[in-house]
Automatic annotation (TrEMBL):
The lineage of its organism: Eukaryota, Metazoa, Chordata, Craniata, Vertebrata. It comes from the Eukaryota. Keywords: Disulfide bond, Glycoprotein, Heme, Iron, Metal-binding, Repeat, Secreted, Signal, Transport. Signal peptide: none annotated. CDD domains: HX. One of its GO terms (cellular component) is extracellular space. This is Hemopexin. It is found in: Secreted. PROSITE patterns: HEMOPEXIN_2.
Length: 410
């Protein structure tokens, strides 16, 4: 038991771990593998890989996954959306965490022409590659594997470092080398822009690491989901993620970044939900409510934080919250339910509970004159009103947070 506790304490992704493999599951959640452990998503503690993929330990004693990817091949439902793991000379195929019959198999049987003991692998669907393909990495050698024909084409990616792991996320391709990463063109291997970059700045909830880190560029282009977002009565936007937040003032496209502790020192870091009402920021963390007067600097009101139950009539934690313009109702999202709190009455009570049918979990939400934006992972969805958000039975168009909210095109 002591040994397990020691291992878990050592496996801190913010210490600069070199991941063995990365793959995205069927729900779009990245899995980062290190040794016989696994990190799910962009934050949280390590867990044993065999808790999710039990058979990995039944067939090997290597203690780690060499490479992993999620297959994209819609013409073959047998393999499409399956996760493939590579260990030494074996390959495992999982669907919804269940090992497919007949696996593990030799890599040469399933992917003829692909060597054993791989360093990394990543799926490449068309048109990002000419055909639905998988790119395999071993040292300096790059193999493009055509999923349909099983043909293998060896390539040279001269401008890219050797990958210790690789994955495709939001239609971009990333090569990890140590705790750095580079974004690359899957056809040519070309790396454009200022790379390598620090993986902990973009793919993990970690504090700033070096003087080379850029607060604004990191936060606007980060792949980590938002914790909370709101706009105040003047139209200034605040977006919170981990230890940091971004601010964009009305009528000015310039983004500013700062630490939560610097601007909201009583909070320290990480907020669950935020909404704005009558020139005050209502900031929810766990089961506490912090209240700030909007200004330069923001003023923390005496007597706060106060219990969320006493102030808004609901137990925490809360996933998201928003207030629409000219309304006096706070909409609080908790799990798959939404509650209304009339802010002008006292005591305040969370009532009018309704289920949210479109999303299993909402990360953040905000409302302005254009309607309601609902943030889930790295995307957001626009609804014309709070009522339509609750009553709609079909998802509206999906938008990218980093591109359409923060203007990051990489």
């Amino acid at each position: 038991m002591k040994l397990l506790a020691h291992i878990l304490s050592v496996l801190d992704r913010c210490k600069g771990l070199e991941m063995d493999a990365v793959a995205v599951n069927e729900e779009g959640i990245p899995y980062f593998f290190k040794g016989d452990h696994l990190f799910k998503g962009f934050h949280g503690k390590a867990e044993l890989s065999n808790e999710s993929f039990a058979e990995l330990d039944d067939h090997h004693h290597l203690g780690h996954v060499d490479a992993a990817f999620r297959m994209h091949y819609e013409d073959n439902p047998t393999d499409h959306d399956h996760m493939f793991f590579f260990l030494n000379n074996k390959v495992f195929s999982y669907y919804q965490h269940k090992l497919e019959d007949g696996y593990p198999k030799d890599i040469s049987e399933v992917f003829p022409g692909i060597p054993d003991n791989l360093d990394a692998a990543v799926e490449c669907p068309k048109p990002e590659c000419d055909e639905d393909s998988v790119i395999f990495f071993k040292g300096d050698d790059i193999y493009h594997y055509n999923v349909r024909t099983k043909a293998v084409e060896e390539k040279e990616f001269q401008s890219m470092p050797n990958c210790t792991s690789a994955f495709r996320f939001m239609e971009h391709f990333y090569c990890f080398h140590g705790h750095m990463f580079s974004k690359f063109d899957p056809k040519t291997g070309d790396v454009h822009g200022r790379y390598p970059k620090e993986a902990r700045d973009y793919f993990m909830r970690c504090s700033k690491f070096s003087d080379d880190s850029d607060h604004v560029e990191r936060e606007r282009c980060s792949r980590v989901h938002l914790d909370a977002i709101t706009s105040d009565n003047a139209g200034n936007m605040y977006a919170f993620r981990g230890h940091h937040f971004l601010r964009k003032d009305e009528g000015n496209d310039t983004l500013k970044a700062d630490t939560i502790e610097n601007a909201f020192k009583e909070l320290h870091s990480e907020v669950d939900a935020v909404f704005t009402y009558e020139d005050h920021l209502y900031m929810i963390k766990d089961d506490q409510l912090f209240l700030y007067k909007v200004g330069e600097p923001h003023t923390h009101l005496d007597g706060y934080p106060k219990p969320l139950k006493d102030e808004l009539g609901i137990e925490g934690p809360i996933d998201a919250a928003f207030v629409c313009e000219d309304h006096h109702i706070a909409h609080l999202i908790k799990g798959q339910n939404i509650y209304d709190v009339e802010l002008k009455v006292n005591p305040r009570v969370a009532g009018h509970e309704r289920p949210i049918s479109l999303f299993k979990k909402v990360d953040a939400a905000m409302c302005n004159i254009e309607g309601v934006k609902v943030f889930v992972g790295n995307h957001f969805y626009h609804f014309d009103s709070a009522m339509l958000f609750v009553t709609s039975r079909a998802l509206p168009e999906q938008h990218k947070v980093s591109l359409e909210v923060f203007g990051c095109d990489h």
